[in-house]
Amino acid sequence: MLLACFCTVFPLQAIGQSEPSPTAEEEGEKQGGVVINLPPSPALPATTGLVVVDVQQILEQALAVQAVQEQLTAARQDFQAEMRGREAALQERDRVLAAQRSAMDDAAFQAERDLLARDLAILQEDIRNWFRAHDQAQNLALRQAQQALLQIVSELARQRGAAVVIPKSSIVLVQPNLDITEEALRRLNQELPSLPPPQLPRQGLETQPSDSN
């Protein structure tokens, strides 16, 4: 091979996708404890000084965020297929150039080799730029959902007379009547049913590989 190697430089799995959140039981095992969902206690009304919310669960299950993730997944699959085609074309040019080496003078061979190396660098840069835009679009959607969720959680806490909101991931014991996760998710889906579609570089990209004679 004339080039050191042709490496597929884009991941085949989703970039930026979060790992599934651990269950309450798994979270308790990590801390060496046992998670117990206590039954509602008449002696502890919902207007106690704190409430609990599972932010990660809400962001994973929010309809608007899921819709954006589905759009990003589809765009990523299309883009990867296109990049595989461009990579295969570069590999074929490399093979043909190697086969023609003996019939070419040094100057012509070096010129073709330089073009091939340049186009490989363009491909790699296009891939990096696309996935950078992909991650930015994903993070923007999450930030928008988080901002809306913050307002909802603040309102729920105010309604319950709670001065403190605790993330569910940081506790082991919780009474169900203190957990506002389901209500917050329901309101988020009502108030933020959708998000703007992610803005990604168009398919085909602006840069095109050079023609090889």
Rounded Rg = 26 Å
Strand order of the largest sheet: 1-4
How many angstroms separate the termini?
19 Å
Helix run count: 5
Helix content: 40-55%
Please outline the major beta sheet. Answer: 2 strands, parallel
Low-pLDDT windows of residues: 1-21, 27-46, 204-210
Query: What is the count of β-strands?
Result: 4
Strand content: 5-15%
Structural class: mainly alpha
Mean pLDDT: 80
Shape: rod-shaped
Order of helices and strands: HEEHHHEEH
Describe this structure in words.
The protein has 213 residues and is mainly alpha-helical. It has helices spanning 24-30, 55-61, 63-100, 106-159, 181-191, and strands at 36-37, 50-53, 164-167, 173-174. Strands 1-4 form a two-stranded parallel ribbon. Strands 2-3 form a two-stranded parallel sheet.
